[in-house]
Amino acid sequence: MVAPVPEAPEIERHRAAITRTNLSKPVRLAIESSILNQSTTFFDYGCGHGGDIKRLAKQGYSCSGWDPYYRPDNSLTSADIINLGYIINVIEKPDERREALLKAWELTQKVLIVSALVLIEEARSGQIAYGDGIVTRRKTFQKYYQQEELKAYIDQVLGVDAIPVALGIYFVFRDAAAAENFRASRFRSNASTPRIRLTLKRFEDYQEMLAPLMAFYTERGRLPTPTELPNITELLEELGSLRRAFRLILKATNQAEWDAITDKRRQELLVYLALTKFGHRPRFSHFDSSLQNDIRAFFGTYKQACAAADLMLLSVGDSQLIASCCRQSDMGKLLPNGLYVHVSAIEVLNPLLRLYEGCASRTIGRLDGATLVKFHINQPKISYLFYPDFDTDPHPALHTSMQIDLRDLQVTYRDYDTSSNPPVLHRKETFVTPDYPLYEKFSKLTRQEENWGLLEDTKTIGTRQGWHKRLVEYCAELQGHRLRWRKDADPYRVKLLQSARNRRSREG
Fold first, then answer.
1. 4 pLDDT above the threshold of 80
2. How would CATH label the architecture of 13-174?
3. C-alpha torsion sign, points 149, 414, 328, 324
4. What average pLDDT does range 76-105 have in this prediction?
5. pTM of the predicted model, to two decimals?
6. C-beta of residue 265 within 8 angstroms of C-beta of residue 298
7. What is the per-residue pLDDT across 348-369, written as a single tens digit (0 to 9) for each?
8. Widest pairwise Cα distance in the chain
9. I want to staple 340 with a disulfide (CB 3.0 to 4.6 A). Which of 117, 124, 333, 360 is the partner?
């Protein structure tokens, strides 16, 4: 007897739409990346309740949207930026999913933003396996992609090379030059324009006119071409040439600081070019004029630039060299199995380590909200660690980790959110740079904890339970980022601990 074919579960796609209180992350990233701005048009394909377009409209953006359930009468409109936000993961039929992606791409004039849910933890109870996904209790369908699976799907359907900008979020550019300029810009870190050190009458006379030249050099690490500076005509009339104008700037500032900016921009461009080796390295003509001028200024020719980048990339494959860079790093917390660095400090690392991390983040993407990056010393792996309370909790607990094996780009997730004894952090100032806003606050707590003896024998305090046991043992408790004696502590025990603390202070 043939078993009856089970009925397809009832699926209500519109119930997957989320009511948001802020802009969605894909749209926020587009604004932060200057992809979406006041001069571009925006269309939300599958806008749900329309939260993004309502908020964008209030901020003066030119935007509209369409949704098959909530706004079916709106017309499908071409725009510079098309957002396909968390749509392909809620469509249960593969052919319709593909059609939605293709239609959104057809409407795209400049950049298509594609986002989908990425699988981090196993499916929870109450969900029914259906097709290549699951049906939830709310009768919505969800397909949870792996990050690398999502990129492969976008690339295959559209015939593109999608750029990962966060976990589950990709930008797809129409113009190859714009795509490469965006990729390169993501490696360009912030730099401060050198301060004026000498008072020179001639410099002061032209300071306002020289300001754009100083800003350009800070941004690109080189002198501009005649077409790259707005007030070039007036500047040339007054000072004769850009080189002469820059020599005047050098007299009033420190040349070593400008040289450091040039070296920094050159290294950042090398890291970018090295990573293009993983895909289809673009032709020189695929770069915009600014990037072409960078390459000429720093390397002479594109061929020489690629050769230098490939040598750098070969160095990344040297596990002993990477381990040596980790051990010699002035930045981060070094432990026997790896170097741990706050994401805000990556840009100040050795260029080889930046390239090493870039191999992971620019091909797979960083864990959403990643706080720390772990550079594994004994194996070619990068881990992203999420500590949601890093700034506010004196010893924050690990929430989620994402490990990328650079040999095969396999991704492994681990969730500690429900763990009763997650790993916790100590000495938070070691992960960040001295200019991090809370650096001194972190440092002060560490000095206090060292003085109390709390950070000795680190093997036993690496987890929440172990740390709490240590605090109880030392009659201590934390009030924010400050230690104090427990009110219920034994006075005699406190006296002994105070004596030991005073002894450590004298010996220190």
1. no
2. 3-Layer(aba) Sandwich (3.40)
3. negative
4. 91
5. 0.66
6. yes
7. 888 889 888 887 876 676 777 7
8. 100
9. 333
